[in-house]
Amino acid sequence: MVVKEFNQLLKEKGYKFTNQRQYVFEVVTENRGKHLNSQEIFELVRNRFPEIGVATVYRTLSLLEAMGLIYGVDFEDGSRRYDIVKDDEEHRHHHLICLECGAIKEVEEDLLGTIEENILKKNKFKVIDHRVKFYGYCEKCLAKTECDQ
Fold it and tell me: Where exactly are the structural domains of the chain?
């Protein structure tokens, strides 16, 4: 999304366009798939806009999430992590989380389509979205433990 589109979307929702909001949105967009936490986003934005305060970043992340431009995920590491909403995703992607090093990897395939159909048929409940996190060990950590044995 370019600056002009972002500005227009803010206006449509009744918000003012500010450089701070633009920089926060740009940092999340440029780091798509990295699941940055608010402190990491703050540090990257501060490189561009040194006067920005951490509270402004928190408020902007909250605003962008409420507008549906970004989403936050909790990976049980004490931080809410953010990523950009992808227009072509019917559901949010799934995540693989390494218990050893904390690496996070996205799984793009929608693994639960059949389950959602069965839920609708059996329970008369239409699933709109789901979030799945798989916990285990990444390739590097698996190799390391095999070498240690």
Answer: 1-88, 90-149
Question: Which of 17, 19, 107 minimizes the C-alpha distance to 67?
Answer: 17
Mean predicted confidence (pLDDT) in 131-145? 86
Angle at 52 between CA 47 and CA 57, to 5 degrees: 100
Q: Give the single-character DSSP code of 70.
A: E
Return the CATH fold of 1-88.
Answer: Arc Repressor Mutant, subunit A (1.10.10)
Q: What does the alpha-carbon distance between residue 34 and residue 43 come to, in Å, rounded to a whole number?
A: 15
**Burial track 37-57 (b if 16+ CB lie within 10 A, e otherwise):** bbebbbebbbeeeeebeeebb
Averaged pLDDT score across all residues of the chain: 85
Query: Distance (Å, rounded) from C-alpha 40 to C-alpha 126?
Result: 36
Out of 10-14, 126-130, 139-143, pick the least confident: 126-130
Class of domain 90-149: alpha beta
* 93 pLDDT above the threshold of 70: no
Whether pTM exceeds 0.90: no
